Amino acid sequence: MNLLLAEVAQATQRLADAGVPSPRTDAEELAAFVHGVKRGELHTVKDSDFDARYWEVIARREAREPLQHITGRAYFRYLELQVGPGVFVPRPETESVVEWAIDAVRAMDVVEPRIVDLCTGSGAIALALAQEVPRSRVHAVELSEDALVWTRRNMDGSRVELRQGDALTAFPDLDGQVDLVISNPPYIPLTEWEYVAPEARDYDPQLALFSGEDGLDLIRGLERTAHRLLRPGGVVVVEHADTQGGQVPWIFAEDRGWTDAADHPDLNNRPRFATARKALP
Known about the structure:
By secondary structure, the protein is of the alpha/beta class.
């Protein structure tokens, strides 16, 4: 074992003791980041090339600063995104939401499907859809100026149309023309603040986390936005907390112009997102 791998083993224990959910992975990711190699190449770093700054970044992660803030990057499906203070760090759970949306759009008999991403944050969802549905026309909106610093960096050179604004009133020029509306909105109940992981509670923007006493305030508003934007037969996809399974589909009720409202599990088989179809006239 070379020096770096021995240090990674010690760092793993330190991170585990600090309650970091994935200590080994994070210890290796930070070692690779500091030394400019891939995780699978850590064994190739010579002992003389060990960089003591490794223990500086381990101390930051030990204090529960998000891994992605330390490295400045987050991976989402086939994307590498720039992230940092002021923007919500995309989570692996959202990848299954996007997977469902991609399949739904591909199943539509539409040559150039129009997609709207509400509360885009880092731009992860919009960029993934633009990349994986090549002929789609993707639009995204974000309210926070702090988040938009990162969104603009990630979307630079992309074909996503980005606007700053309120998701509840966004894109009036697209009313009735959209094939799919997708959103990963804030959905944590205010009453759950103390139970949120430090990485999210202390570093992610509050605007991207909390939404009323039951966490569903914004989703209730987005239901109307989605209905306004979608063409008849168009589909909405909204992420929610695994504890909200069964609640969100009821928001997309038949008497409000929806059909086929349903919940779907994530990769851990927990209810993660709801979908519904705008009723035909």
